[in-house]
Amino acid sequence: MTSHHVAEEPIKKVAIFGGTHGNELTGVFLVKHWLENGTEIQRTGLEVKPIITNPRAVKKCTRYIDCDLNRVFDLENLGKKISEDLPYEVRRAQEINLLFGPKNSEDSYDIIFDLHNTTSNMGCTLILEDSRNDFLIQMFHYIKTSLAPLPCYVYLIEHPSLKYATTRSIAKYPVGIEVGPQPHGVLRADILNQMRKMIKHALDFIHDFNEGKEFPPCAIEVYKIMEKVDYPRNESGEIAAIIHPNLQDQDWKPLHPGDPVFLTLDGKTIPLGGDCTVYPVFVNEAAYYEKKEAFAKTTKLTLNAKSIRSSSH
């Protein structure tokens, strides 16, 4: 009997990025630890390389120096002529692309795990960039199952205009890991422990896959971005209302038309418009004030993956 599975190349090179945003300390702390003692991230036959991606921002404990490193990995920036006038993060992106890419090439790393914290109440979140990727859907299913009963959500950022050029996008399989709530510049043991477990399960999955284990067809629930919602603003562009208490900390929970979303200082409630139920994420994220994003609306859907096994077996 022949099995209908997708044969994938074995995974050889994995990188773990910490400090893409220099004030998101869980990834910084874990990567620094693994650079000194990487025993827990080593797996037979696999090269796993931890790296601090934005060392200057990490040193200053700030999100970035000149611009957001997690937004500049497009081919235009990566192809710019190197000069001192370039923003620090663009120069750094070019260095990272040389080390772990080049982007869209055969030589690029197989998988990059990019470790982030959010101030939003998002718990353990995996970020998926491609809804048709059987390998990543299988990996995310494995991580979710291994973490249970602790919930783990999948945020799908596939969108014609809202998808951005992430640091991890130079890998064949980019994986964003986002754990919160945690204030910037702060470490929390519970959040650190959750992120550590997510990486452990991910590496175990890769190891099992490389050893020839076949993963049967599976399905996962994902939250796909629809649109970003800005705060209400006054004529001079300043924020005129804040996240309503009913919405605060309610990431991933259904939000219905008419539900309170914002509150003005004179007590006026601004409800959700539209005619469909949405699932808010990155609610009141500190780093997104500058990006004019109060939260993102998502819709819930199910992704299916075919059975996979390594082509070397």
From TrEMBL:
Domain of life, per lineage:
Eukaryota
Q: Where along the chain is N-acetyl-L-aspartate bound? A: 63, 178, 288
Q: What SUPFAM superfamilies does this protein's entry cite? A: Zn-dependent exopeptidases
Q: Which residues form the active site?
A: 178 (proton donor/acceptor)
Report the cofactors.
Zn(2+)
- MF term (GO), any: metal ion binding
Q: Name the major location.
A: cytoplasm
Q: What is its EC number?
A: 3.5.1.15
The Succinylglutamate desuccinylase/Aspartoacylase catalytic domain covers which part of the protein? 11-206
What does the entry's cofactor note say about binding and number? Binds 1 zinc ion per subunit.
Keywords, sorted A to Z: Cytoplasm, Hydrolase, Metal-binding, Nucleus, Zinc
Q: Which GO terms describe its cellular component?
A: cytosol; nucleus
Q: Which residues bind substrate?
A: 70-71, 164-168
Q: Which family does it belong to?
A: Belongs to the AspA/AstE family. Aspartoacylase subfamily.
Report the protein name in the record: Aspartoacylase
Organism of this sequence: Propithecus coquereli (Coquerel's sifaka)
